[in-house]
Design a protein that fits this description.
13 helices, alpha+beta
Length: about 325
């Protein structure tokens, strides 16, 4: 693993830290499922030797499950395991803890050249709360666009190709408008979503609804200022973010969100009803104490169930067990 600490500070750090206070932040480059290949972190935060240790123990990261899902929402390390378990990992004891990283919040930006680009925010004394997670999830589409622009600017000779490559693997759906507001390139997924959510509107160029055309015109009149809008259909909302492209024109990112969460957990036949209940709440990110309260069990009983679940999947930590359970459940239930 190499340290890219000499590169420019990540474009996300300043706007995010103004709204969500952090002690440090980093850009992490993963080759799935869990190999950390490079990292951007200020030299004042960690030495090259300390960075190397983070890479060595990165396979223990609770965010391995998160990367496997390619979920676009931000997650805390404690959403996957209790903080006590996180602090017992060699990753924390030998690598993160010594540089003051006791709590983490991470967001996946996109995949490019088979590498996952993931932002992590760090704190020493307290975890991130629900309000702060809501803030970074709201900012997420703009962070994706900003980082794509940064990549393009640093690789100007491949600008158009780099924009397309990054957008093809970023969560959501994407497209580009030229400097005159005409669609230059759009994913088929983006076209389909626009037709689906704006059914009945006048379409320009075959798939651009009047509302989206108006969003581009508003940006143009306001000196290319970023624009954001939403469109609701049934139980889903489409979030539309428009930002300036470094090669001229605009980049548009679409993200669809359910107003009610989709059930992701499926009971496993080899487990008892109670053990499946414990596993379900593990998948939902609940800590042992919370599971005990929800199910009316003693903390010792919950700990016993969790230990048996980990053993059943030969998993060293909670995140690995959750990922294995989700994969197994999808197979046995025909998913």
């Amino acid at each position: 693993m190499k340290n890219r600490g000499a590169e420019k500070s990540p474009v996300f750090q300043r706007p995010v830290s103004e709204l969500v206070p952090t002690d440090s932040a980093s850009m992490n480059f993963f080759r799935p499922p869990d190999q950390l290949t490079a990292i951007v972190v200020p030299e004042t935060v960690a030495t090259p030797e300390q960075i190397a240790l983070v890479g060595h123990y990165s396979y223990e990261s609770p965010f391995g499950y998160y990367l496997a899902t390619q979920d676009a929402s931000w997650k805390r390390a404690t959403d996957f395991m209790p903080v006590e378990d996180f602090h017992k990992l060699d990753l924390h004891r030998l690598a993160l803890g010594p540089v003051g990283v006791h709590y983490q919040l991470a967001g996946l930006l996109f995949m490019l050249d088979e590498v996952a680009y993931m932002v992590t925010l760090h704190r020493t004394h307290r975890d991130f709360n629900e309000r702060e997670m809501e803030i970074v999830n709201t900012l997420h589409p703009h962070l994706v666009t900003a980082y794509i622009n940064a990549i393009v600017c640093s690789r100007a000779q491949h600008s158009e190709a780099q924009i397309k490559a990054a957008m093809e693997t970023a969560p959501g759906a994407h497209g580009c408008f030229d400097a005159k507001g005409k669609p230059a390139w759009f994913q088929e997924k983006a076209k389909a979503w626009l037709r689906e959510f704006f059914a009945g509107e006048v379409l320009h160029d075959g798939f651009i609804p009047q509302s989206i055309r108006q969003l581009v015109m508003d940006s143009l009149r306001q000196g290319n200022a970023p624009q954001q809008s939403t469109q609701t259909k049934g139980e889903e909302t489409l979030v539309i973010c428009l930002g300036v492209s470094p090669v001229g024109g605009w980049i548009m990112r679409l993200e669809r969100k359910r107003r009610t969460p989709l059930p992701r957990f499926q009971p496993l036949p080899q487990f008892s009803r109670r053990k499946n209940e414990v596993l379900q709440w593990m998948v939902e990110g609940k800590r042992n104490a919370e599971i005990a309260t929800i199910l009316g069990l003693s903390p010792r009983t919950v700990e016993k169930h969790v230990a048996e679940i980990l053993a059943a999947f030969n998993a060293e930590n909670r995140a690995t067990a959750i990922l294995a359970a989700m994969e197994f459940g999808a197979k046995v239930n025909g998913g």
